[in-house]
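Figure 6 in text form: structure in, sequence out.
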């Protein structure tokens, strides 16, 4: 199990904005990969209420169980590696047991006594990323429900540097800073819109 603080800045993009950034920043590197996120919560959305998100992510030959929780305006991630088979077996069920480490963390930090969760949404992302000025620039094209969206993410070692790089990319293309929900919220909301 690993823990890390995730400092990232996100902005939804139009397809045209996505293409501009892709063509300017990634011309030397067109190494996309696909990842699938499956999101979980209780029937009464206790994790959402605590501003936490629980997912299983599959990409290439790796998989992990991740709990994201709020931390000083960003997120703390608790990651537990899974084999591809373990992840696929879990994803095939509508209700699953969560790892004891995550359950213990939720109980200690949020007074949530959760051991089983339900699948609430799925999202598939085609991602490309590049190191840039000590940050990681990420472009995502994501599919969920009947929706396709495009997103810029900048992951950074500090808030100041992340904000500087993020703002400079947006300003370079006159892209407005848009309120951008996280992927779990967008996927969950898209399901509500379809229903």
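Output sequence:
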């Amino acid at each position: 199990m690993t823990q890390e603080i995730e400092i990232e800045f996100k902005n939804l993009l139009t397809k045209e904005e996505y293409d501009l950034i892709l063509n300017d920043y990634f011309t030397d590197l067109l190494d996309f990969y696909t990842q699938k996120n499956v999101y979980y919560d209780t029937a009464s959305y206790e994790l959402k209420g605590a501003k936490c998100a629980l997912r299983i992510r599959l990409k290439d030959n790796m998989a992990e169980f991740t709990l994201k929780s709020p931390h000083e305006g960003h997120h703390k991630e608790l990651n537990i590696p899974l084999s591809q088979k373990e992840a696929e077996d879990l994803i095939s069920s509508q209700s699953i047991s969560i790892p004891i480490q995550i359950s213990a963390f939720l109980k200690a930090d949020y007074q949530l006594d959760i051991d089983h969760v339900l699948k609430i949404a799925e999202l598939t992302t085609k991602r490309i990323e590049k190191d840039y000025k000590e940050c990681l620039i990420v472009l995502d094209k994501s599919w969920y429900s009947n929706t396709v969206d495009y997103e810029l993410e900048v992951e950074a070692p500090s808030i100041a540097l992340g904000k500087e790089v993020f703002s400079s990319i947006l300003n370079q293309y006159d892209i407005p800073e848009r309120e951008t929900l996280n992927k779990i919220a967008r996927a969950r909301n898209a399901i509500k819109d379809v229903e």
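Caption detail: The mean pLDDT is 94.
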